[in-house]
Specification:
Blueprint (H helix, E strand, L loop, with lengths): L1 E4 L15 E4 L2 E4 L4 H5 L8 H7 L7 E3 L9 E6 L12 H14 L5 E5 L5 H11 E2 L5 E4 L12 H14 L5 E5 L2 E4 L4 E2 L8 E2 L7 E3 L3 E3 L14 E2 L7 E5 L6 H7 L6 E6 L10 H12 L3 E6 L11 H8 L3 E2 L5 H12 L6 H8 L23 H8 L11 H18 L3 H9 L14 H8 L2 H9 L14 H7 L3 H9 L6 H4 L2 H11 L2 H9 L14 H7 L3 H14 L8 E6 L1
Parallel strand pairs: 5-20, 6-8, 6-20, 8-9, 16-17, 17-18, 18-19
Antiparallel strand pairs: 1-6, 1-20, 2-3, 4-5, 7-15, 9-10, 10-13, 11-12, 13-14
Helix pairs in contact: 3-4, 4-9, 12-13, 12-14, 14-15, 14-16, 16-17, 19-21, 21-22
Length: 580
């Protein structure tokens, strides 16, 4: 497993785990303590000179990627599990072990990368996507078809790509990175045992493609819908199985498979969720099982498509009490069923309802409701008629007009604190992270206005705290400059921090505040995580300026603040931790 985090503390805790395979007598098996030694020899995965200059070499199993095009470094720590496992030997207990480590290190890292064997990687990715609740950071699984020790291994590129994405992009999902593509973890399946292009996401295009540049399709990234604290749910029901229908399957076979202690079944059916409707013996076994509380979820064995009741053969299963799985992969349905069945406080009907809900983006074709569009209402027409400058627009160009209007309307709603309007726009398809012509998002506007409730709403709907406007300012910078202390606190709780560009002149501003005795101004910069020992153009620190100006209260505050800050690690670059 790999995690990413901005360059962190000297006393960073170490440890994550990875399986490395070395051939012996033409048999591949995991070998302990082999990965880090190999990575240190690969210049594109470890910059030894930088490690020596900064003292990172003293931190056990900590490596650093050379400077990227985005002028950032990924510092990562490798943690190795014992015993090492072939992925075929993975169980739900191993998923829990990985998840508990993510939870333990969650606040120390920007993201996590998990090195995993390919055979059951799709199962682990799906399971972790449900077990990780309120996830706000990237968790990326990757591995290789050819061991990293061999000359033609794909593992090196896969590892580097996963590190760069986890360390540089705010994608709060459990993902799988393979062969230059980042997929949603619960939408993939392994389709090839011999190709480097081993995984496929049948119903959802990649979240990102690593070509000359890394291009993220932000419209498909699953946005968080809560500001609740991250938690990892270790409870998974083990009495779950997968039954695949085949022509001529007997009722005895089905009956035997559906017997206790089984509590949940993924039923792999034909086409769009079809099963024989002329086999009363089969349908009776399924109906009897669902009536006694067994939950069966219907998934198509086809790679692409979704479960429907368009055919009589599909309706037969629905009438027998089987829950439609829509377009979930079998891996996702299996993991979701294990996750939902473990919730002891829910009734059978509540569990079935939960299975039909899109919990982590696992159902791309979602559960049918009509699509909304601004063109469905009179809003566009009303604006076009009331604003003279819109007369030249061709109203038939609906998509272009909507794209132009939505960000500005959302920003206008954020300015006046109208959450109802923001929610209406979101339901009509507006992405509340999109920016207006100045690059300002609704979150920028809400932080400027100090609308704490709007900021909380936007963060709950997945608005990114890292967006920059045309002037290079983040929402956090706006809140600090306008002194909205409660907004700063909320943004910090949601992982907001200053970029290097934003703080390059911070020393001068801090010295100005110190000279004028502006204690409140210094306090809000401190609450935003800024180092109060930063110097201005002449090398003077704020405390030196305060002493010269004889501002005793400021001097006292700065002494206390800087003493506490010296005990923490200053975050400069991105740091990763690898667990295998």
């Amino acid at each position: 497993m790999i995690t990413t985090h901005p360059l962190a503390e000297k006393d960073l805790r170490k440890g994550e785990k990875k399986v490395t395979e070395i051939p012996e007598a033409e048999v591949l098996y995991p070998v302990k303590n082999a990965l880090v030694k190999t990575l240190r020899k690969l210049p594109f995965l470890h910059d030894e000179q930088y490690a020596q200059q900064t003292g990172l070499y003293k931190q056990k199993n900590t490596l650093v990627v050379p400077l990227s095009k985005e002028n950032r470094r990924i510092v990562y720590t490798v943690i190795e599990y014992s015993p090492l496992l072939d992925s075929c030997n993975m169980t739900a207990d191993d998923w829990a072990t990985i998840g508990k480590d993510i939870e333990e290190y969650y606040d120390q890292y920007n993201g996590f990368v998990i090195l995993h064997g390919t055979d059951t990687m799709a199962y682990t990715a799906s399971a972790l996507s449900f077990m990780c609740e309120n996830l706000g950071k990237p968790v990326i699984l990757t591995g290789s078809q050819v061991p990293i020790f061999q000359p033609r291994s794909d593992g090196r590129d896969n590892l580097l790509g996963a590190l760069l994405i986890a360390g540089q992009f705010d994608i709060p999902e459990v993902c799988l990175y393979f062969h230059n593509k980042l997929y949603r973890g619960n939408c993939v399946t392994k389709v090839n045992a011999e190709s480097f292009n081993a995984f496929f996401s049948p119903n959802l295009p990649p979240l990102a493609n690593a070509e000359v540049n890394i291009k993220v399709n932000w419209n498909t990234v699953w946005k968080a819908n809560t500001t609740a604290k991250f938690a990892f749910n270790t409870q998974m029901n083990h009495n779950v199985g997968v039954l695949r229908l085949f022509p001529g399957i007997t009722a005895d076979t089905v009956r035997a498979f559906l017997q206790p202690p089984m509590e949940g079944i993924v039923l792999e059916t034909y086409g769009s969720g079809n099963a024989p409707d002329n086999r009363d013996d089969l349908l009776n076994e399924i109906r009897n099982a669902t009536e006694r509380g067994l939950i069966i979820i219907n998934c198509t064995r086809c790679l692409r498509g979704t479960v429907t009741t368009s055919y009589a053969t599909g309706q037969a299963l629905s009438k027998a009490g089987v829950v439609p799985g829509f377009d979930m992969t079998s891996e996702a349905a299996f993991s979701k069923l294990s996750y939902v069945l473990a919730k002891q406080d829910l009734s059978i009907e509540e569990k079935k309802k939960m299975l039909s809900c899109n919990l982590r983006g696992e159902m791309v074709a979602d559960s049918g409701g009509a699509e909304h569009s601004l063109s469905d209402s009179s809003l566009i027409q009303g604006i076009a008629w009331s604003i003279g400058s819109f007369r030249f627009l061709n109203i038939s160009c609906k998509e272009e007009l909507e794209d132009a209007l939505k960000p500005s309307l959302a920003c206008a709603a954020a300015r006046i604190g109208d959450i109802d309007a923001l929610e209406a726009l979101r339901e009509l398809g507006a992405d509340l992270s999109n920016a207006d012509y100045d690059g300002r998002t609704p979150l920028h506007i809400a932080t400027c206005e100090g609308h704490l409730n709007v900021v909380e709403y936007l963060l709950g709907k997945g608005a990114t705290v890292h967006a920059k406007d045309r002037f290079g300012d983040s929402p956090l910078h706006n809140a600090v400059r306008l002194r909205h202390t409660d907004v700063v606190q909320l943004l910090r709780e949601n992982r907001a921090h200053f970029s290097q560009d934003e703080i390059k002149d911070a020393g001068t501003e801090l010295c100005r505040l110190a000279a004028s005795g502006d204690l409140d101004g210094l306090k809000i910069w401190k609450s935003a995580g800024v180092d109060l020992t930063m110097t201005r153009y002449d090398g003077k620190t704020p405390i030196k300026v305060a002493k010269d100006a004889k501002n005793k209260g400021v001097v006292t505050f700065l002494k206390q603040a800087t003493e506490s800050q010296t005990q923490q690690t200053r975050l400069h670059d991105s740091k990763c931790c690898i667990v295998t």
